[in-house]
Write a sequence for this structure.
């Protein structure tokens, strides 16, 4: 592989104008497709095989139109202290607001009247939960239904909703708005700008050259632009949804910068060693590029492995993000060497170029072999490997302790900041109608073929009312038009995200078997709360199979790369340690509330259901990046005759600074999302940032060299029979180096080289 990539790098360097034009054309084509495509909408969410999904399918079949996916808004009114919302004056103000809501936008489908009361027939075999007045008369709410879903809702519709709320507040009433109508597509531009800004500063410090620093940023932006534009262009065709582009952008930007960083850094090292520019580009792509390919493959495996969860939305997100990573790899192998051809001497800073001109070849070699921070740190680890290993493992183990109390769920308006109107509306509804009112359970009841269909539904209602945890059961006043299904609504006593509500869902499902045996009616449980419970269970059940698949495939891949059994095993165990420690930190901050105010956590609660599996997938891919880039340098030195300890020092001398810069950039990209007003986004940003910190600086920089130091030559042991079976991909470039140093190879190195290139040997 190294030989092929060497030739590819030289070809891209020589034909740089054509290569650059091809990538610009691809960016323009993807941009045109995105601009021409219709506005992407939310992808259809389904969890095949779960009871909640079966219930939704039954509703679609037996109650056409009742599960329309239009956006909704709950406008909640609270009378001043000591007053009633039912007084003539307050009632007039509420009715005035209702009329304003109806005429506020053409996208409004219906506005319910709170004074008709909750429990009115909704015309579909159930009772409306769309309006009502609290028992004490202090709080009322109305539901605004829209013709479009939340992502298709126009800005003027949202603005009209907000303006009506502001006008209503002038009357002296407290007016708050909840529901998904105010939910706009998450904006990540600020986070991305912060990440790019920090990355640029880190790259400037690392390279000392604006040209070299700007190259990874430019290529990462081009890669993300092509990936995200392609996703936008195909969003509606492939039902990708709006969040897919956000994930692809986050991961594509991070790995795009890192991959380019490694190739540019290796190119500068090859120039420092005295190779001409074209040859240096080929060698950089042949060695660092090989590491990029395998690092990218681990990320792609991790993202595509999300298909194991069997949730179509997550599978599509994983595939789309994996495609963006593949684009980043291709750019690092082709566009980077092309841009290096344009950069010339400017890939080094002015000071470095002047120093290079003044130094002799011997002085250059001495400079390259000088001790730096990486070798000094490696020396410390080599002197105290057991101490460093114990400190790293025990430290991460302590941080991981909170994982034992991990509780998972999905966020709702109750997890938002108490300053938002959505959270205030949520709290008012809880105060006026009970905690469970924000998450009613919907129970479609199949009575097809039952002789006394209405009696069977009534019997089911009676049995469900006897369960603990039920605040109210609202039976259907009539069955559907075909007379073969009814819709029961259950309001729990507890809030939607509580364990008590989850227990109630399981109790109803356990009871449904007895109800079917007695009456023939099949009761299913669904609704947002039940769907969240089933989603969390599916994610929990899929975690271990997913982990086994991803780690297993990556273990085989790394065994091919490193020609070793113990090194890949150590890499996998180190990853598990870092990801569990990161999850422990997430639980401590977002579930327990430790240091919550520092990260904007006002309401500690369950951890987002997809967080563990999401962290496993993303962090594993990124962790293996650092493993491949750092340890391949050690493997390269070991293969070329250095002792195990020397190889570790050599790997750190050449790779520690670059890996450190890459990790800081990655942490900066993810940390930019911590400032989001959405706690879910904040949680993802914090989790990924702390995981990269643990993995890069504790596992890869401390535990890995300590373990390698203790293993010595055994670290690189591979049974002979296995060595014969495994393909030799030559990531460290051993075969490439032999070919380049063989007889007659010197003339081939400069074939096709620009005349000026031969004069520009940089010995910095």
């Amino acid at each position: 592989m190294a030989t092929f990539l060497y030739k590819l790098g030289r070809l891209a360097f020589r034909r740089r104008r054509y290569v650059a034009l091809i990538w610009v054309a691809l960016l323009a084509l993807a941009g045109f497709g995105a601009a021409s495509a219709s506005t992407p909408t939310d992808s259809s969410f389904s969890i095949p095989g779960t009871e909640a999904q079966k219930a939704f399918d039954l509703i679609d079949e037996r109650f056409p139109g009742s599960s329309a996916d239009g956006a909704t808004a709950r406008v909640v009114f609270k009378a001043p202290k000591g007053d009633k919302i039912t007084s003539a004056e307050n009632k007039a103000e509420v009715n005035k607001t209702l009329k304003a809501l109806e005429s506020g936008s053409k996208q409004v489908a219906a506005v319910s009247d709170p004074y008709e009361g909750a429990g009115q027939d909704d015309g579909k075999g159930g009772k409306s939960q769309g309006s009502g007045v609290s028992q004490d008369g202090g709080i009322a709410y109305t539901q605004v239904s829209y013709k479009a879903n939340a992502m298709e809702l126009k800005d003027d519709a949202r603005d009209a909703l907000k303006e009506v709320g502001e006008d209503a507040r002038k009357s002296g009433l407290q007016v708050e708005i909840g529901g998904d109508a105010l939910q706009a597509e998450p904006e990540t531009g600020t986070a991305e700008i912060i990440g790019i800004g920090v990355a640029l500063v880190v790259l400037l410090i690392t390279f000392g050259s604006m040209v070299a620093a700007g190259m990874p940023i430019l290529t990462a932006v081009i890669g993300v632009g092509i990936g995200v534009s392609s996703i936008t262009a195909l969003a509606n065709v492939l039902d990708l949804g709006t969040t897919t582009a956000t994930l692809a952008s986050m991961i594509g930007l991070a790995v795009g910068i890192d991959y380019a960083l490694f190739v540019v850094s290796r190119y500068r090292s090859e120039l420092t060693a005295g190779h001409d520019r074209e040859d240096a580009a080929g060698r950089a792509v042949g060695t660092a590029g090989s590491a990029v390919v395998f690092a990218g493959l681990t990320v792609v495996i991790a993202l595509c492995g999300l298909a194991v969860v069997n949730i179509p939305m997550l599978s599509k997100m994983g595939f789309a993000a994996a495609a963006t990573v593949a684009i980043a790899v291709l750019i690092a192998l082709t566009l980077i060497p092309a841009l290096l051809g344009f950069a010339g001497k400017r890939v080094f800073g002015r000071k470095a170029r002047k120093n290079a001109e003044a130094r002799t070849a011997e002085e250059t070699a001495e400079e390259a072999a000088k001790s730096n921070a990486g070798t000094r740190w490696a020396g410390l680890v080599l002197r105290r490997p057991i101490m460093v290993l114990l400190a790293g493992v025990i430290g991460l183990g302590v941080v991981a302790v909170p994982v034992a109390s991990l509780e998972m769920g999905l966020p709702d308006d109750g997890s938002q900041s108490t300053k938002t109107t959505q959270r205030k509306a949520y709290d008012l509804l809880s105060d006026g109608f009970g905690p469970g009112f924000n998450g009613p359970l919907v129970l479609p009841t199949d009575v097809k073929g039952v002789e006394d269909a209405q009696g069977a539904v009534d019997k089911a209602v009676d049995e469900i009312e006897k369960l603990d945890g039920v605040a109210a059961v609202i039976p259907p006043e009539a069955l559907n038009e075909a007379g073969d299904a009814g819709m029961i609504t259950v309001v729990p006593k507890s809030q939607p995200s509580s364990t008590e509500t989850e227990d109630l869902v399981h109790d109803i499902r356990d009871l449904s078997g007895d109800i079917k045996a007695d009456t023939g009616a099949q009761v299913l449980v669904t609704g947002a709360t039940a769907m969240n419970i089933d989603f969390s269970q599916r994610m929990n059940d899929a975690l271990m199979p997913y982990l086994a698949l991803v780690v297993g495939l990556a273990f085989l891949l790394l065994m091919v790369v490193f020609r070793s059994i113990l090194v890949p095993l150590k890499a996998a165990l180190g990853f598990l340690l870092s990801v569990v420690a990161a999850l422990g930190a997430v639980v401590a901050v977002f579930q327990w509330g430790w240091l919550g105010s520092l990260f904007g956590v006002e309401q500690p609660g369950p951890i987002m259901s997809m967080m563990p599996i999401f962290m496993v997938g993303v962090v594993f891919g990124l962790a293996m990046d650092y493993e491949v880039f750092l340890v391949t340098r050690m493997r390269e030195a070991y293969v070329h005759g250095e002792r195990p300890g020397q190889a570790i020092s050599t790997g750190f001398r050449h790779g520690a600074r670059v890996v450190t810069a890459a990790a800081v950039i990655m942490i900066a990209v993810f940390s930019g999302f911590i400032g989001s007003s959405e706690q879910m986004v904040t949680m993802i940003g914090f989790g990924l940032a702390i995981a990269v910190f643990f993995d890069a600086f504790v596992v890869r920089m401390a535990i890995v060299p300590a373990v390698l130091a203790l293993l010595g030559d055994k670290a690189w042991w591979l049974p002979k029979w296995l060595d014969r079976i495994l393909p030799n991909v030559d990531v460290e470039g051993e075969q490439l180096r032999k070919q380049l140093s063989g007889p007659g190879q010197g003339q081939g190195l400069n074939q096709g080289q620009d005349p000026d290139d031969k004069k520009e040997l940089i010995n910095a």
